[in-house]
Design brief:
This protein has 390 residues and is α/β, with parallel strands linked by helices. The protein is built from 17 helices and 13 strands.
Length: 390
């Protein structure tokens, strides 16, 4: 098994909190990680998509009460929201008896629903962690371009060839559209949502214009907005908010919307091989989204991601505000001879970030002047992670 960066944080969280909720999109490796944790901690593992395990929970309080002295892992727990009330009672009972922490590890694929259901019922008793598909900080044995093309979902990234990887991603999209989303509640025609998802792939990283999306899809703005919320809730899309600063200039206010996995972007657009990707109009936006997602995913807890753009063209693709208040400015270029644009220099003059980077697809780090460094993506990922450990 490829070690996941989140394994030790999950185990540490279970020592401190009565319940830990591990969020992440389907097929990103939550179950594999949970089984690893369960093996190390001698836990009971229940898959709520399994009829056999569901049968054990016909009387959930009686069953779980028998295991108050062990960690219980509940996979796909959002399918049984009635369990949260039961868990609250059992957690409080364990606290009163002095049995302490680490009773439940909950796994779910829908962020907002899980946060709402568990947050209302288990307030003060639960900690949330997010598992993403593989990042460049994890030892998958794949090079940067392969991971960019295929994305980070394990079965896609580790497939024997590009063809098998693409077929897996197409099946993944179809399963989400035809099974998973209907099971989560929203009644959305699968073909309509596929068109919407594909539109977002074509507009990767563009400022979110809900009215324009609605017009092209033939729905009202409220419906298009709900579709966006759904993909964000499923951890398949990310809104990056604009950074607001008192600089005396007009600032862009709309968030930018990225599909979080580059492999899904390429599958939606029918891009099978690296050569096809390099010749496609989405290449620059796809590379930017891949860079941004990796840096955000590997940033220390409490780091806030933004972008910055003024009406005059000053722009920073990614602004990371660390928990200590320091800011790192990142420009992204898909060029082996990168040069920061005038807009990046102008934005840095506005905001005075503590570090300035230009991420490019090369292997060597070198200065570009004006405090800007050209940095390979994998190296900057490690630097961002290291800042959190320091």
């Amino acid at each position: 098994m490829i070690p996941r960066l989140l394994t030790e944080p999950v185990i540490e969280a279970l020592k401190e909190a009565p319940a830990v909720c591990l969020l992440g999109p389907r097929q990103c490796g939550k179950t594999t990680l949970a089984i690893e944790v369960a093996g190390r901690l001698d836990a009971v593992y229940l898959d709520l998509e399994s009829e056999r395990d569901l049968a054990k929970l016909q009387d959930p309080e009686s069953y779980l009460e028998r295991h108050l002295d062990r960690l219980v892992v509940l996979d796909e727990v959002h399918r049984r929201p009635n369990l949260f009330l039961v868990l609250r009672g059992l957690i409080d009972r364990a606290r009163r008896s002095g049995q302490g922490h680490g009773r439940y590890l909950l796994l779910g694929s829908a962020a907002l629903g899980m946060l709402r259901q568990s947050g209302e019922t288990l307030a003060g008793r639960i900690r949330f962690l997010e598992l993403t598909p593989f990042t460049l900080a994890e030892p998958t044995g794949r090079d940067v371009d392969t991971q960019w093309l295929r994305g980070g979902f394990p079965d896609s990234l580790l497939a024997p060839g590009d063809g098998e990887s693409l077929r897996w991603r197409r099946d993944f999209i179809r399963t989400y559209l035809e099974r998973d989303i209907p099971q989560l509640g929203p009644r959305i025609p699968a073909e309509t949502l596929r068109r919407f998802w594909t539109m977002l792939a074509h507009r990767q990283g563009a400022p979110l214009n809900v009215a324009d999306l609605a017009r092209n899809l033939g729905v009202d703005s409220g419906t298009a907005s709900r579709y966006c919320d759904l993909l964000v809730d499923l951890l398949l899309a990310r809104r990056v908010q604009p950074f607001h600063a008192n600089v005396g200039k007009r600032l862009r206010k709309a968030p930018r919307l990225y599909l979080r996995d580059s492999g899904l972007v390429h599958a939606l657009l029918g891009i099978a091989h690296l050569e096809d990707l390099l010749a496609h109009p989405v290449v620059g936006a796809s590379w930017e989204g891949f860079v941004i997602e990796n840096l955000i995913a590997c940033a220390p807890d409490g780091t806030e991601p933004f972008y910055y753009r003024t009406s005059g063209g000053a722009e920073i693709d990614l602004l990371l505000r660390r928990p200590d208040g320091r800011m790192w400015a990142v420009e992204v270029k898909r060029s082996t001879a990168p040069r920061p644009g005038r807009g990046f220099h102008s934005a840095c003059e506005d905001l005075h970030p503590d570090r300035r980077y230009l991420v490019y697809p090369g292997d060597e780090r070198f200065p570009l002047g004006h405090g800007v460094e050209a940095v390979p993506l994998r190296e900057l990922v490690e630097e961002v992670r290291g800042a959190g450990r320091g």
